[in-house]
Amino acid sequence: MTAHDPNLSRRNLSRRTWLKGAGALVIGLHLPGTARAQSSGAGAAFRPGGNATFAPNAFIRVAPDNSVTVLVKHIEFGQGPFTGLATLAAEEMDADWSQMRSEHAPADVKLYANLAFGVQGTGGSTAIANSWEQMRKAGATARAMLVQAAADAWKVPAAEITVVSGVISHASGKQGRFGEFAEAASKLPVPENAPLKPASAYKLIGKEGAVKRLDSYDKSRGKAQFTIDIHAPNMLTVVVARPPRFGGKVASFDAAATLKVKGVVDVKQIGSGVAVYATGMWPALKGREALKVSWDESAAEKRGSRELIAEYRALARQKGTTAGKHGDAEAVLAKADKVVEAEFVFPYLAHAPMEPLDGYLQWDGTEALARFGSQFQTTEHQTIAAILGLPPEKVKLETMLAGGSFGRRAQVSQHLAAELAMAAKAIGPNRPVKLVWTREDDLAGGYYRPLFVHRMRGAVKDGKITAWADNIVGQSFFLGTPLEAMVVKDGIDATSVEGANELFYEIADFNCEVANPKVGVPTLWWRSVGHTHTGYAVECFIDELLQAAGQDPLSGRIALMGDKHARAIAVLKAVGEMANWKGPGPVGDRARGVAVVESFGSFVAQIAEVSFVDGEPKVHKVWCAVDCGVAVNPDVIRAQMEGGIGFGLGHALYGELTLDQGKPVQANFDSYRSLRIQEMPEVEVKIIASTVAPTGVGEPGVPPIGPAVANALAALGQQRPRQLPMVGRTV
Amino acid sequence: MVSLKVNGTTHSVDVDDDTPLLWAIRDNIGLTGTKFGCGVAQCGACTVYVDGQPVRSCVTPVSAVGDSEITTIEAITGKEAEAVQAAWTARDVPQCGYCQSGQVMSAVALLKENKKPTDRDIDLAMNGNLCRCATYVRIRAAIHDAARALEI
Questions:
Q1: What is the number of domains present in chain A?
Q2: Are A217 and B89 within 8 A, CB to CB?
Q3: Which of A22-31, A82-91, A509-518, A521-530 has the lowest mean pLDDT?
Q4: What long-range pairs does A544-549 form, CB within 8 A, spacing at least 24?
Q5: From CA A527, how far away is CA A407, in angstroms rounded?
Q6: Is the backbone peptide bond immediately before B94 cis, with ω within 30 degrees of 0?
Q7: Cα(A641)–Cα(A3) distance, rounded to whole angstroms?
Q8: Cβ–Cβ contact B106 with A under 8 A
Q9: Do B133 and A643 touch (CB under 8 A)?
Q10: Are A374 and A380 in contact, with CB atoms under 8 Å apart?
Q11: Do A612 and A563 belong to one domain?
Q12: What percent of chain A clears pLDDT 90, i.e. is strictly above it?
């Protein structure tokens, strides 16, 4: 999701409320426009971590044992918000990192909305960006009140008190820790404007080695609890037989053989297919295997990838909707001596998070508790309540750690929450259910990165690029949905064209058009969204035009940026210095390619060093320079660049989800090839020092790697791959 | 009823013979550190030891295990396990963390066999363990860290 809200960090927190717990200091911050009644209902009875002293409208809890627990409104599925949001609070509290803890906040839009969305949810690499001021203010307020409580106890002026690494001190020799003052602080009035530190005083934010991830220990020891790990008395495991083609429906089914499988308890038709309920996963799978379902495919999508690509290629030759234009590219192209053309084809891609989709729900007919890796808590909460026919305040939603998402859990359609609620409703109250998708369910389950075609044309004259045209064709996953108003403007779905309708490069005559054909395959954002294809098309094509113009890929890019894109220029220069760039090569059997992409407010440039071994590109090393504003957790940022590079590279090299007559072909990781350790390049990351408010890091590492590799292949004398994946393509 | 010796304790579990060890461990014995990722031995998230050797529990039926000693992530011990888990934490290897039980199991098994693995050795030992977050750079570094720690 894109959320480039420049006002984000300047929004004021209008009201603060202290909530008292038994010996615990709890801070709640009411958000602008939502400051109504204190939270009740969702989350009030249900408490993350099971701590009885917790009150729900709160970000920070200080316990008598000195532990500081941050309630994190964003789901943790790898990108580090547990650590990042705790860092922001700890910095302003002057806490010691060893006393910090994190837990997921409950679902409560009044307290925990993403300030970029207005609802509780995670996406668009916004976790740090929208929490930057909010969590620091929460920490500063907590600190001020703890200091006041100490001042009152010691009968000294608060201004004379210092706090270092969680120890509150006065020159008189008096000393104490947070826990001692938690209860007294909870009785004090809330200061209106607790001052924030100047950046020069930071001890944690941006400091190498000051902060370690709060979740590494448990995750290295099998102790982290994911949704699939939930067990409850009387719980049933549910798998669902879903239609083999998108848009298919159950015509009839015969469950006789299924019901004979030991451990199968029941079979019910639900909205998404036929649900098999069993005492465990294996009987559920065996039961589903034995199920006979006849499908009504009269309305199902029956086109395959091959047919769709042909249709898209034809559409790319027709007039689309103008998404960006200056000058008259068509006129220049028509008269040009030298026109370079390239057509790029991008397959459907699955997100394939390591933990397939799953969810747990228990209800007794009047109240419900759902526990799963919810990425859009507000809407999922509403969906579950609506399907169960319960008032929202009777439904609690607990966010679980999730084994990856890459966009898969950020569901515009709410289909997982809906299926979970339907499965629970169909079996009736007092039978807790754990719904589990298999890998086959995941890969065949749709919600893919849409298939896209870019038809590019460029004109080069006297060593200059004089015209650029890009005709983009692909499905929109927003048009026609309730979220349409959020990203669709003048008929343009921003997620189809972001990164392509405005370029860094100053080209006098420019045109970008888009067509969003309707196809019955459910699609969804996928880590870095539109940039997954626009980054590749644009950065390959500019490289090709620079080559045609006889210019260096790196200095040629910088020259085309004029004086408007200082941050993009800076990351390009930085990555060039890191790699000691002397042109693309080749040197020996290796060559280098470069690419630069801005996404989610962050700028990333990468250089890939590549050879060609046994018919496949081998990526040896990647240099990466990133400017994401203030680097809150440098090591988490490095990890996201490393992981983003691996994710982007794996899909550029091997990733494709092919449809054959509407049916997904790749069923598991044997055919949906995923990057493995021997294919992972060495990665060197430089983080550009910045004082700009922080922007995203979860996604921006992904887009540049594919084109950087393609551009290196060009330097090795090959064509930049026009169709992805680069290796083992089936279409 | 099938008898399984897991982490030093014998469990009688009421499952069919064809039940994969993975689901007996998770659903019947209640040890959930071992993860399901693919069900077809392609991702390694389900790695456990059978008589000390790493196997993919998702394709190992309980009938094939007999009275072998099964060890899961919850019960790995010894200097290699300690070194690997310490290195994993110090390097902040995990992102989502879901595959990491399997990664750690494979890494510990490698170091038990090979005290000073090369990058090539690591590739061979770890290439059955997928990480969709692509934490591979740190997995490799952490294995080298652990090997160095074991030298001391």
A1: 3
A2: yes
A3: A22-31
A4: A544/A340, A544/A342, A544/A458, A544/A714, A544/A720, A545/A340, A545/A458, A545/A460, A545/A465, A545/A468, A546/A465, A547/A714, A548/A338, A548/A340, A548/A458, A548/A460, A549/A460, A549/A463, A549/A464, A549/A465
A5: 6
A6: no
A7: 20
A8: no
A9: yes
A10: yes
A11: yes
A12: 85
Q: Distance between CA A701 and CA A638 in Å, rounded?
A: 9
CB contacts under 8 A, B 23-62 vs A, are 23-24, 26-28, 30, 32-40, 42-43, 45
Question: What is the ipTM, given to two decimal places?
Answer: 0.98
Confidence of residue A487 (pLDDT cuts 50, 70, 90): confident
Q: How far apart are CA A70 and CA A186, in angstroms?
A: 16
**pLDDT at position A17 over 50:** no
Distance CA A702, CA A697 (A): 10
- Reading the block at residue A475, the tokens are 């499905």
Which residue from B16, B90, B101 is facing A222, i.e. has the nearest CB? B101
Q: State which fold the B2-75 domain adopts.
A: Ubiquitin-like (UB roll) (3.10.20)
Residue A116 inside a domain? The answer is yes
Give which of A74, A219, A399 to mutate to test B binding, by max B Cβ within 10 Å: A219
Clarify whether residues A490 and A431 are in a common domain. Answer: no
Q: Which residues fall within 8 angstroms of residue A481, CB to CB, at 6 or more apart?
A: A412, A413
CB of B130 closer than 8 Å to CB of A679: no
Contact status of B63 with chain A (Cβ, < 8 Å): no
Residue-number span of the structural domain to which A365 is assigned:
227-298+357-436
Domain boundaries, chain B: 2-75, 79-151
What would the two tokens of residue A240 be? 């669902």
B28, B38, B95 member nearest A639 (Cβ)? B95
Contacts of B6 by beta carbon, 8 Å cutoff, 6+ apart: B25, B29, B31, B70, B71, B72
- Tens-place pLDDT, residues A171-208: 999 999 999 999 899 888 888 889 999 999 999 999 99
Identity of the amino acid at A350? A
For residues A327 and A380, membership in a common domain is answered with no
Task: Give domain status of residue A729, yes or no.
Answer: no
Residues with Cβ within 8 Å of residue B5, at least 6 apart in sequence: B11, B67, B68, B69, B70
Residue A33 pLDDT exceeds 50: no
* Residue in A282, A401, A619, A635 to test binding to B, most B beta-carbons within 10 Å: A282
A-contacting residues of B 112-141, CB under 8 Å?
122-123, 126-127, 129-140
CATH number, residue A542: 3.30.365.10
Nearest to A674 among B93, B122, B130 (CB): B130
Query: Minimal CA–CA distance to A33: which of A18, A19, A12, A3?
Result: A12
| Position A249 in a domain | yes
Which pairs count as long-range contacts for A430-433, CB under 8 Å and 24+ apart, including other chains? A430/A234, A430/A363, A430/A364, A430/A365, A431/A234, A431/A235, A431/A236, A431/A277, A432/A232, A432/A233, A432/A234, A432/A235, A432/A236, A432/A360, A432/A361, A432/A362, A433/A235, A433/A236, A433/A237, A433/A238, A433/A277, A433/A360, A433/A361, A433/A362
Distances from the Cα of A168 to the Cα of A174, A199, A205, A245, A488, angstroms: 8, 21, 20, 63, 51
Q: What residues in B contact A406, CB-CB < 8 Å?
A: 132
CB A448 within 8 A of CB A490: no
pLDDT at residue A8 above 60?
Answer: no
Q: Which one of B19, B20, B38 has the shortest CB-CB distance to A668?
A: B38
The answer to whether the Cβ–Cβ distance between B38 and A406 falls below 8 Å is no
Domain B79-151 belongs to what architecture?
Answer: Orthogonal Bundle (1.10)
Asked if residue A727 belongs to a domain, the reply is no
Distance in Å, alpha carbon of B67 to nearest chain A alpha carbon: 21
